[in-house]
Each structure stands twice: as structure tokens, then as C-alpha cells.
Amino acid sequence: MSSNQITLAAVAGAHGVGGEVRLKLFAEGLDSLKRQQTLFAGDRPLTLKSIRPGSAGAIARFAEIADRAAAEALRGSLLSVPRAALPPLEEGEYYHADLIGLPCVTDAERPLGTAVAVENFGAGDIVEIERPDGSRFMVPIAKAVRIEADRLVVDEAFAQ
């Protein structure tokens, strides 16, 4: 996937026999997908015909997927859009993908490593930082991270 592509969901498997797929959402709700006409599974464009809530994410129908076998063949595919297709951000907002790869330092300018993942387990966004020795630790963004244009600044008390 090119660096200008942002992953919004992954295909978890087929749903029913008519070609619908179950999606695990990485974006914030169905609206982020509803506003997209085309999603990409690798280099393959898929035209979104419909999407609705599902038990563990969403159920989607794509124009190019006509039956269960075709839907099942998409299992594990990441669905992305060009970065330019995403809406502009408000002050204080960020896309998780924009944080991955940023260097991390403490508020005392001590280097910590690199942001390798952003997770949300229900209580807010958490950034996972990998130290140069390969060890990793997690920090709650809202409580301990200042996001700058080219780095993340972590409160020393959370820097372990």
C-alpha cells in the first residue's frame, strides 16, 4: 500500500450468500466509510453500494462482489482510500496514520523512540512507542502526549 493511502477497514469475511462482507472498522464509525464511493483492496477498486451496522463492525456490499465466494476471497483484505479523499481536520484532530513513524521525545527532550501504532480500547487513543532496543510501551495520548507537526512529545512521568 502506498504511503498516501489510509486504511479504513479490513474484510473479516463473507456475510450471507449474496456477496456482502463483514468489516472490522479502523475509522470512527460508519460515516467515514459512507462518504467514500470507492475503496481499494490493494490496487483493486471496489465501489461501495451500501453499508450498515453489523454485530462487530459493519456489513458492506460492493458492486464488484456478486456472491459468497467472491466475498470470501476478500477475507483479510485491507480497505483504503487516498489520503486526499479524507475530510480536512479540525484544530486538535489527527489521523492515526499521521502519527505512525513520528519520533517521540520526552518533554525534557530525551529521545524515546518511534510511534509504531495507535490503538483505542475504549477509553481513548493510546500510542505505542518502540525504543531503539526494540522494547515497546504505551502512553495515553489525551493525558500525556503533545502532538507536534514532526514529533510526539511525551510527559516524562509516562516515559517509563
Explain the overall architecture.
The protein has 160 residues and is mainly β. Helix content is 11%, strand content 46%. It is built from four helices and twelve strands, in the order ββαβββαβαββββαββ. It has helices at 31-34, 68-73, 96-99, 141-144, and strands at residues 5-15, 20-25, 38-41, 44-54, 57-62, 78-82, 103-106, 111-120, 125-130, 136-140, 145-147, 152-154. The strands form two sheets. Strands 1-2-5-4-3-6 form a six-stranded antiparallel barrel. A six-stranded mixed beta sheet has the order 10-9-8-7-12-11. A hairpin with a 4-residue loop joins strand 11 and strand 12 (152-154). The protein is elongated, with a radius of gyration of 18 Å. The two termini are 33 Å apart.
What distinguishing features does this structure have?
single chain, 160 residues, mainly beta, six-stranded antiparallel barrel, 46% strand
